[in-house]
Structures are given as C-alpha cells and as structure tokens.
Amino acid sequence: MKTINVGILGFGTVGSGTAEVLQQHAKTVLQKTDLAICIKTIADIQIDQLPEMFSKTKLTKHVDDIFDDPKIDIVVELIGGLEPAKTFILKAIEAGKHVVTANKALLSIHGKEIFEAAAQKGVEVGFEASVGGGIPVIKSLKEGLVANRINSIMGIMNGTANYILSQMTDFGLPFDDVLEDAKQKGYAEADPTYDVEGIDTAHKLVILMIMAYGINIQLDDVSTEGISQIKPIDIDFAKQFGCRIKLLAIAQNNGDHFEARVHPTMVPDDHLLASVNGSYNAIQFNGDMVGNVLLYGKGAGKLPTGSAVAADVVDIARNIAFECVNRVPSLSYLPQYIKDCQITPMDKICCPYYFRITAMDEPGVLAQIAGILGKNNISIESVIQKKRHDSESVPIVILTHRAMENDVEVALGEIDGLKICTGKTVKIRILE
Amino acid sequence: MKTINVGILGFGTVGSGTAEVLQQHAKTVLQKTDLAICIKTIADIQIDQLPEMFSKTKLTKHVDDIFDDPKIDIVVELIGGLEPAKTFILKAIEAGKHVVTANKALLSIHGKEIFEAAAQKGVEVGFEASVGGGIPVIKSLKEGLVANRINSIMGIMNGTANYILSQMTDFGLPFDDVLEDAKQKGYAEADPTYDVEGIDTAHKLVILMIMAYGINIQLDDVSTEGISQIKPIDIDFAKQFGCRIKLLAIAQNNGDHFEARVHPTMVPDDHLLASVNGSYNAIQFNGDMVGNVLLYGKGAGKLPTGSAVAADVVDIARNIAFECVNRVPSLSYLPQYIKDCQITPMDKICCPYYFRITAMDEPGVLAQIAGILGKNNISIESVIQKKRHDSESVPIVILTHRAMENDVEVALGEIDGLKICTGKTVKIRILE
Q1: Is the domain of B255 the same as that of B151?
Q2: Do residue A142 and residue A229 come from a single domain?
Q3: Do A306 and A294 belong to one domain?
C-alpha cells in the first residue's frame, strides 16, 4: 500500500465536498487501488478550524505550506476565479505537483499557459469537475469515445440557468421573479451574470471543444447569448409547438470549420435534453461510430462536484503509483496535434427559427411579413396569429424551416422597420 | 511511436465493426496516444476474404495463428456465446495476450474463471462493450464514480426488448406482431429468447453489480422476468396512469444484502428512463456522493459496439506502452476485496404494484378484492373499473402503494381463487 498525499487550496463548498468524499471513501478507494489517499494539508485564509473528521489534516493560511511540502503529490485548486487561482496552480506545477481543478473560467481563458507549464514539468492537470459537475463527461469523451470523430456536442451545462428556465416553464413565472427566488434559495449567486448570460456555459464548451476536436479555441470564439431576455409568453408558445426552451451549448464539426455557440434554444419534447430539468446537466456527443451518447447528472453541488474532483485525484494517484504519468494527455490530443481552427461566423449558421413579431392587428400584416421572409430565403413552417384582446398589438408567431442567420437578421431588420410592427421581434433558434 | 498488434476472433457484425473503427480512426488514435494500433490478424472460419480496407491484415481460419503469434499483444474475442469463445479466451490468456470481449453471456457465467486466469498471467480483460454497447458505462462506473458507494443501478439494457415495447406503446400492437416484424427487420434474432425474456439483461446486470458492489454474484441470483406476457391493454392502462412499461434491470444496495432483478416495470413519464425509446439503452447509477448519473446511447449495433471495443483496445494499448498493466483492476475492486453477498429473496422486495384483475361485472366485486388486499397489508392508491361492453368479464385495474412481494403473491392467489375472478391477475411492478 502506497500513500498519496493531497493538498487542497480552498475549503469552500467544493473544497469541503471534495475533502468529505475523499475522507469518507478512503477505504473504498483503497480496496480499488491499494492506495491510501491522504488529505495532508488544506489551505484557506477564511477558516480557523476544520471539521472533526479531518483531525489528521493540517489547516494553514499559507499556500506555500502546500507548495513547499515535498511529500504532497497532488494539489487540488478549488478557490475558483482567475486570481489567485492561476498563480497558485502555476506555483504548484513549478513545485512539481500534479494539479486537479474544477476551475472552468480559468482553464477556458488561461488553459494554454497552464497546460504548457504542466507539460514542461511533466505533471498532470485533471479537470473532470470543470464540466458537468459529477458527471464523468471528460473521461467519457477522452477515453470512452477515443476512436470517434466527434461530429457535435450539445448540452445543458449550467444548473442555475436550467433551474430558472424550468421554474419559468413549470409555473409561468417571469425571469426576474424566478431569479430573485433562486438567489434566496442559494441556487443563484449574488451576481448571476456568468450563469444566466451563458458565459459559464461558454467556458465549459471551450474546454470540451479543445478535447473533442483537438483545436485551439478561445472563449471569444464562442457566440454567447443568455436567458435574461426570455419571456413567459415565448415559453408558452414553445409549449404549443411541443418544445421547451433550454440554454444549450452547441458545437458542430463542419470539417474545416467549427460552430461554437451558446444560446436559448427550443428543444422538441421528445428530445432527451427537453426532459433535463432543475439543476441537472446533460451533455450529448455525436460520434461518427458511436452515434449519440448522452450523459446526465448533477452539474454542480458540494458532493457531486467533489465526486468528480476525487475521481481525478484517484486517476492521478494511480498514475503516480504505476509510474505512468500523462498516460492520457490532459487535452485528449497530444500537444503537437492540437491545431488552429476556423470558427463559423454566427451569421453563417443555419437552423430553424422561432419569431415572435409584435404587430398592429390589421388586415394584410401577415402578407407583408411573409413577403419579407420569402424574399430573404426564409420559408415558413407554421404561423400562430393571436386575436386582439385589449391592446392593438398582437403577437404573430412564426416557425421557419432551416434558414441562415444572416438572412434572418436582414429579414427581421426589415420587419421591425415596418410601421405596423410595434416592438422588436424576438428570435429563438430551434434544435433540429 | 510504438506499434500495438491486435488479433480479432470473429468477423461478424461486431468483429467487422471493431475492425472498421480501429482502421478508420487509426490516425485519430495515433494523435491521442502516439501508438499505432495495427490489426495484424483476423480469424474467422466463415469468410474467405476481408474487405479491401484491411489489405494489410492477415485472414486465417486457425485461431492458433493468433495465439501463437508473439507479436500480437491484444486478442479481441467477438465470436459470442459460451463455446468456443471461452476456450479461445483462456488460450489467449495462457499465451500471455490481453483480451477484449463484448461477451456478456460468457463473463456473467464464467467470469470468475476467466478473470482468475488473467490475474495469474498478469494480463488484462477489457469488456466495456459487454454492457450498453457504445456507452462508456463500465469506465464511468469503475473510474468516474470510483469514490462513491453505489446505492442502486437501474437501466434499460436490451435494445431488442426496448424496441418491441416502444413499438407496442406507440402503435398499440400486440407483442407477437411486433416481434415478428422485428425479426424481419433484423432487430430481433431468430431465437429472441435471451432478449425478450430478460436473460441478456440479467447477464449485464451481473457484470455491473460485481463492479459496483465488489461482490460475487451469479446469474442465478438475478430474478428474471421477460416482456412476452405484456399485453397492449396493460400498456394502455400504464399510459392512463402517466407511465410507460420498460424492461428494467434493477440492483439495490441494502447494506448487508442486495436486490438483483429484471422485470417489466411501469416507469413514470417524467423519469428520464421513460424517454429512452427504440433500440437505445440507458443506465442510471445512484451514488451516495454524485447522486443520479444516467448514461444513454446505442446499446448494440456494429459501429457503436465497435467503438466500445476499440476504446478498450486503446486503453490496454496505453497500459502496454506505459508499462502499467492492470492499472485499474478489471472488476473495479481488487480481487482480495470481492466478497460473497446475500441476495434479497424476491418475495421480500417492496415496491408499488399495478394489478389488472379480470372479474365478473357484479356488484360487490371491488369490495371483496379490496378486502383481500387490505388483509394482506396492501393499500390501494387508485382504481379503474371499466364498464362492461360485450363480455361479462371486466378489467379492474388497481395501483397500490408500496407493498411486499410476498403479501402480493398471497393476495393475488386469494383473488384469483374467487369465483367472480375469471382470469389470472396481471401484476406489474412500478418504479418508485
């Protein structure tokens, strides 16, 4: 039996969850690996005492106690955010430690620097917990689907946004009310921008795309649109068309160029992603050999995320014990094969669309709108024109066949310029 | 770059699929592993020529050409069935080859012997493709959920049975008609017994339970009931109660004993498993740390299964290259920690039930039935009593709260013995 010593940076939600998972299942892990995983030191400037179950673990406020300890093999960074997390990770690598992190923001922005430093030092960087919380999505992609060309990635990767959309759908409530409620219940952070505006989802998509396609891709390459503009009326119309609105991350491998986008999407009820509710996440890969594979589970939370971090720790511990570090390259492809790529501009993507046009309830309105759409190569699949009740404006809802985003933008510009149109048209992309 | 040589036994559906996956994605795999996976020899007594893409591969009718070739590192067994597959696998192990197989029947019956032989020779046995086709379910369980106590396993693990139930549900057709159609379309085998009677599903559950719980469990320990007795009328009633009937494998970790069963189950519509249709499979693990994780994908088929076999080949190839064979124990737990276990007898399991009782349409019938149920500790959740049309017998459908199987058996014995009952009561367990 060999002992592998772990140092944990940050004893917040995920940090304490990880420690709990490793501690509670030390025996399980031992029976599977013949390794004793020992949490030797935890660094956190905000706490003065560890829970009793960690009586053998040293608590420190000085991260150097971890970096300078030659007995520590693996450093687990669970502080989150860009700094000081980045500096700490680079210090750990410099000290020859393997690193495990759940920090998607950091990896999607400074990943290149971190992975290069790790490669130079011959240490590993594990980041299973950075996408999909407890779901073994990264291991499945890197190893389970190793002999596939990944055609597409599609997923619900942010629990907060999915919780809000689920509540809006189930109870017909407006976004602001649900968000407020989610904040009070601890499901949304005080500043929920990253979650509701799709930025967190974009971070995760970047990480998956690098591994799925072996490409250099930056956060800026991902076209990102959040859910704060989604209205209950659009959720209602979606239902009438047999769909649910979900915040999806979508990547598409078009051979010489790649689509990378995050936006609210109408998902048909019979698609499994439509049934992913509340704070759950699900990620679907389409591989040329395996077809569709979907992985579902808790995308966040203390213990689920801790479970994924612990899996990385065990993985690296096995590699240390068997002297096979970097047996699987961190980013799936070996660094020399990761290539630059072309991103499909957003105005070139094609999909069916939902439009909610706000217009005066006058004869001939639909004819004018249909004319503009037709002129711009957009063909209509179905229309719902609501009767006037108390206002003079009515919603005209149109589902289109597959159209190009550029044509849509031009057409909606013209439509919104019509005198009879009294509000900005709402556009939601539909999953094919 | 190191070359790893593979020999394949059997060039049927999965054998040719595996060869195709490995051949087509040789470059992808090389870019991820720096390894050249070479299909050196294929043994099949039924074919005389390989497709052109395998021009560098030797075809033989003599398996010993593979076992005796010192250059072959990994033997892939895709013949299926118990013999000669078992003999061949043991020969390959004896010759010091690593083995990859998709043979769930063999592993669930003779696994102990095979894994012991492999341990003695220090070679690996990979079997990702034996459960869930292309879905990386075994890797996820063994590695992704390594630091969890698995509370339960629940899944749709047979595509043929699921296809038949889906067709019966969608088109209201009887079992026999759908089966006949499935045979003609190649979705069901000439002898579909293993698939429709739950035996294939039981094979897979045995494999998962060994790894999830570290227990010795035999095929006989699994209580197995198939779908051939399911009638369209039961599927219809299930719909009325907001459920779908699925053939589920269920394992439950009750601490000192384990439930292991395969049977048709009424699954509530809002459960993800209810949305798994056609030939797809899905497996859900509940881990004490991670919560529910569900994995979904194609449970069979040439290329999806080939994708899983190829993943095992690559996994073992990496271990050969890094000299870390058996880095992850074949059965998840190290052999010395795999223990005997107690299986919960079927009459001790508890769940809600659906009963379809066939009785004369006379006053007081329900009172008699309700009396018997009450006396046997079975409480009723809801009742549908159909009006008489042309026959004198009517179906009385009852959903119960949680009851014990033993009480149910006693009660149904009494009910079926009533003079007013004119047919055997149908009983279907309901997913909680």
Answers
A1: yes
A2: yes
A3: no
Distance of residue A140 Cα from the nearest chain B Cα, in angstroms:
6
Residues of A with CB below 8 A from B136's CB?
136, 139-140, 143-145, 293
In this structure, is residue B225 part of a structural domain?
yes
Whether residue B338 is contained in a domain is answered as no
Contact by Cβ (8 Å): A75, A9: yes
Contact B323 A324 (CB under 8 A): yes
Distance CA B166, CA B187 (A): 13
Distance from CA of B332 to the nearest CA of A (A): 6
Residue A369 confidence (pLDDT) above 80: yes
Please tell me whether residues B294 and B306 are part of one structural domain.
no
CA dihedral A176, A181, A184, A190 (to 10 degrees): -20
Exposure pattern of B314-346 as b/e (b: 16+ CB <10 Å)? bbbbbbbbbebebbbbbbbbbeebbeebebbeb
Residues A309 and A224 in one domain: no
Per-residue pLDDT band for A47 (boundaries 50, 70, 90) equals very high
Asked whether the beta carbons of residue A322 and residue B318 sit closer than 8 angstroms, the reply is: no
The pLDDT value given to residue B115: 97
Residue B416 lies in a domain: yes
Average the pLDDT over B144-160 and give the result: 98
B304: nearest CB among A290, A295, A306: A290
Residues of A in contact with B28 (CB under 8 A): 146-149
Tokens of B154: 């629940």
CA distance A323 to B202: 38
> Does the structure's ipTM exceed the value 0.85?
yes
Which residues on B lie below 8 Å from A293 (Cβ)?
134-136, 295-298
pLDDT band for position A244 (cuts 50, 70, 90): very high
What's the pLDDT score for residue B390?
Answer: 62
Q: Are residues B106 and B170 in the same domain?
A: no
Indicate yes or no: CB of A146 within 8 angstroms of CB of B28.
yes
Whether the CB-CB separation of A245 and A264 falls below 8 Å is answered with yes
User: In the predicted model, what is the mean pLDDT of residues A145-164?
Assistant: 97
Tell me the residue range of the domain where B378 lies.
Answer: 347-430
